[in-house]
């Protein structure tokens, strides 16, 4: 092959790589001129209206996740409860990605609220990694052998991968085939936009009231998690905007939050399972950090959308590296604490 053809091939590969990277880094960002949005309707990724609207969206995403997991946790369930949250979040993500341009013409921050705020908080990478690790170590103490522990972990991993990608594609195709259109509405006036932003801030302020005013026995179930939902989603979004374009090989921002969130979740579980139990209030706060901060900091919906945007080899490398490092965090932090006797497989602290 002559040199000019080799150069053309290399340039073409670089062009494809840059296009994939651009699509992946724009998944959670407000629509811009590349999506055909008029300049007057474009919002910078870190503008205050975009950041503020993440608050109610992350709260709603968290509540739906906790609700789905609670609803589907019953004796004899045939599907692990977290699968429903991952599927619904990726389904909505697919619809949102397909409708990015019309949503952007209506109100740009709403797109980021749907994808980053709602879908990103409804789905969670860290809890998925915990489920896989608990399967390996048979945390439920089921009557089965080591080989079936292995099969259970493989099943949770592959089903979550497959279900997330299938739900994402299904949502995208629903919006395409059904010719779904975002309701055409006039661009909000300035007072309306200010009101939306103000209500978004008040929504997060309300989580403080729910934590301190509602009975303490519901803190570990929801109110502590609500307190940490917006900080988790905001951290994820900020790191995504700041880091996703740094490395072309993978979306560094999403990759970082998923691994960091998994490590934090493992550490919080160790603290809840110490041989010398922490206080009931600390136990509830830790559960809030697990469900709220780590659950909203990590995401499967954006992770799946990025994988879908990459070519085969790049997608496999990104997915495999994320899964392996997630499990490595679990082994190094949670596993070593259990095997050295400093923590138990079961909860040792009490919420009351």
From TrEMBL:
<dbReference type="InterPro" id="IPR003691">
    <property type="entry name" value="FluC"/>
</dbReference>
<feature type="transmembrane region" description="Helical">
    <location>
        <begin position="194"/>
        <end position="214"/>
    </location>
</feature>
<feature type="region of interest" description="Disordered">
    <location>
        <begin position="1"/>
        <end position="38"/>
    </location>
</feature>
<comment type="similarity">
    <text>Belongs to the fluoride channel Fluc/FEX (TC 1.A.43) family.</text>
</comment>
<protein>
    <recommendedName>
        <fullName>CrcB-like protein-domain-containing protein</fullName>
    </recommendedName>
</protein>
<keyword id="KW-1133">Transmembrane helix</keyword>
<dbReference type="Pfam" id="PF02537">
    <property type="entry name" value="CRCB"/>
</dbReference>
<feature type="transmembrane region" description="Helical">
    <location>
        <begin position="320"/>
        <end position="339"/>
    </location>
</feature>
<feature type="transmembrane region" description="Helical">
    <location>
        <begin position="78"/>
        <end position="97"/>
    </location>
</feature>
<keyword id="KW-1003">Cell membrane</keyword>
<feature type="transmembrane region" description="Helical">
    <location>
        <begin position="150"/>
        <end position="174"/>
    </location>
</feature>
<feature type="transmembrane region" description="Helical">
    <location>
        <begin position="50"/>
        <end position="72"/>
    </location>
</feature>
<dbReference type="GO" id="GO:0005886">
    <property type="term" value="C:plasma membrane"/>
</dbReference>
<dbReference type="GO" id="GO:1903425">
    <property type="term" value="F:fluoride transmembrane transporter activity"/>
</dbReference>
<feature type="compositionally biased region" description="Basic and acidic residues">
    <location>
        <begin position="19"/>
        <end position="32"/>
    </location>
</feature>
<feature type="transmembrane region" description="Helical">
    <location>
        <begin position="251"/>
        <end position="270"/>
    </location>
</feature>
<keyword id="KW-0472">Membrane</keyword>
<keyword id="KW-0812">Transmembrane</keyword>
<comment type="function">
    <text>Fluoride channel required for the rapid expulsion of cytoplasmic fluoride.</text>
</comment>
<feature type="transmembrane region" description="Helical">
    <location>
        <begin position="109"/>
        <end position="130"/>
    </location>
</feature>
């Amino acid at each position: 092959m002559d040199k000019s053809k080799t150069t053309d091939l290399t340039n073409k590969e670089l062009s494809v790589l840059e296009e994939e990277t651009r699509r992946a880094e724009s998944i959670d960002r407000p629509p811009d001129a590349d999506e055909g949005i008029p300049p007057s309707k474009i919002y910078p990724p870190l503008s205050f209206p975009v950041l503020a609207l993440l608050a109610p969206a992350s709260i709603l995403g968290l509540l739906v996740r906790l609700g789905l997991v609670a609803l589907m946790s019953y004796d004899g369930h045939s599907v692990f409860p977290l699968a429903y949250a991952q599927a619904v979040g990726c389904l909505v993500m697919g619809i949102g990605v397909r409708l990015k341009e019309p949503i952007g013409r209506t109100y740009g921050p709403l797109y980021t609220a749907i994808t980053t705020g709602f879908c990103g908080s409804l789905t969670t990478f860290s809890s998925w990694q915990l489920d896989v690790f608990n399967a390996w170590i048979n945390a439920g103490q089921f009557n089965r052998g080591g080989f079936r522990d292995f099969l259970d972990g493989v099943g949770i991993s592959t089903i979550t991968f497959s279900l997330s990608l299938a739900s994402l594609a299904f949502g995208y195709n629903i919006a395409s085939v059904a010719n779904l259109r975002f309701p055409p509405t006039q661009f909000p006036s300035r007072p309306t936009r200010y009101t939306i932003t103000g209500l978004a801030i008040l929504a997060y302020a309300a989580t403080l009231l729910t934590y301190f005013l509602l009975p303490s026995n519901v803190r570990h179930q929801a109110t502590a998690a609500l307190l940490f939902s917006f900080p988790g989603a905001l951290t994820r979004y900020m790191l995504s905007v700041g880091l996703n374009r740094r490395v072309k090989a993978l979306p560094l921002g999403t990759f970082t939050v998923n691994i960091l969130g998994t490590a934090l979740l493992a550490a919080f579980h160790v603290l809840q399972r110490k041989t010398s139990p922490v206080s009931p209030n600390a136990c509830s706060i830790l559960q809030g950090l697990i469900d709220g901060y780590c659950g909203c900091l990590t995401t499967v919906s954006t992770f799946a959308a990025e994988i879908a945007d990459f070519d085969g080899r790049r997608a496999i490398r990104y997915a495999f590296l994320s899964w392996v490092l997630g499990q490595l965090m679990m082994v190094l932090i949670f596993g070593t604490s259990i095997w050295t006797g400093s923590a138990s497989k079961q909860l040792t602290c009490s919420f009351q």
